Amino acid sequence: MWxxxxxxxxxxxxxxxxxxYDFPGDRFIPNRSLMDLDQAHSLLTNRxxxxxxxxxxxxxxxxxxxxxxLDSEGNPFKxxxxxxxxxxxxxxxxxxxxMREEEAAALQNTSNQHYYRRRLPKKESRILDAPNIRNDxxxxxxxxxxxxxxxxxxxxxxxxxxxxxxxxxxxxKATNNxxxxxxxxxxxxxYLAIGFMNSKLQxxxxxxxxxxxxxxxxxxxxxxxxxxGQILTSxxxxxxxxxxxxxARNNVISQxxxxxxxxxxxxxxxxxxxxxxxxNENHIYVWDLVKMSSSNFLHCFxxxxxxxxxxxxxxxDSSVLASGGGTEDSCxxxxxxxxxxxxxxxxxxxxxxxxxxxxHHKELLSGHGFSTSAHHNQLCMWKYPSMTKVGGLDRHAxxxxxxxxxxxxxxxxxxxxDESLRFxxxxxxxxxxxxxxxxxxxxxxxxxxPIR
Length: 452
Prior knowledge:
5 helices
């Protein structure tokens, strides 16, 4: 492979010397440790003219040239040396590599210890009855607001449950064969937005518990809604996504139609600059807020084989999106929206109805429905980024329709078709061992510089 025996820097030449080398080196990358950089700089910058003194004969000049242009081994001086490093010069680097491996193992062991101290609960912390909840995969009728109030639609009735004082309040009962199909609290919890079967999008005042506005724009049921500041985004069976400015008289500020079937999932990033939408035609679209008015999307992911309702943006990396497919797909997929590519795909063997990221540990919780295997009706925990399964909870007697988490990110509530709400202390409490990790980091930082 290395046919360099005619060159002074060939492996054969090198190995014949007392110095032993690990490898012949990269012929394209110079080995600076073997160069005389001072001599090279002198030759490059020397602008003096060559003056020959007649008093010096040719033999003298030849000796002087050899002294100036040959290296210490008597070989022609080269500004760029392409050859292997002596084993002695690799010793320190190999030692550094060994220390780095020890550090990585120590950090991994520390991480595992912190991680395995956590256990999935054996049962729920609380169970509430949810009579007449609609067994509809495509709706989104539960949301836990930052005011610690859980809003949930049970058939045509809308209820509010206060998690602090445990009071239950019936907000309204829909009439004329209408019923809520989507619910979402605003970020400041001043408003509760409710989408209906008959295409109505209603805004309620949280303080007075009264309706204050109806937002027009859709022609069919509104399956999903999501807030972005004062912008309320809605997705409908009419395949449109509409951005409403709740402050403006003319509420529709943009309207796009890219999905070929009902829009059943919407999620804004925490930075509020990108929107993910999932449809019943199995596609995911990623939108830039600035470009939505021109109907130009950033990406379209078509890898799912069933409807995509479950969407969740990673809280640790804003470029990572998690999505879950319906019964014929049964996969959780992670996407890199910066690159527009798939990161991984996990076959859960069950319909994915909901996804929630753990903000305190690097984990993802999924809620499942129909399955041809024994994995139906479960909640499953996945470790991120490896996506290895930590465990499952199978207390629901029917499929898990909806998932959401408390404002502090410690409790998750699941709504099942078995007409129950089950509360799980599955995301916390957060680990308070930062001092141990900090001490370990400080110790490691003294061992080796990150710059080689």
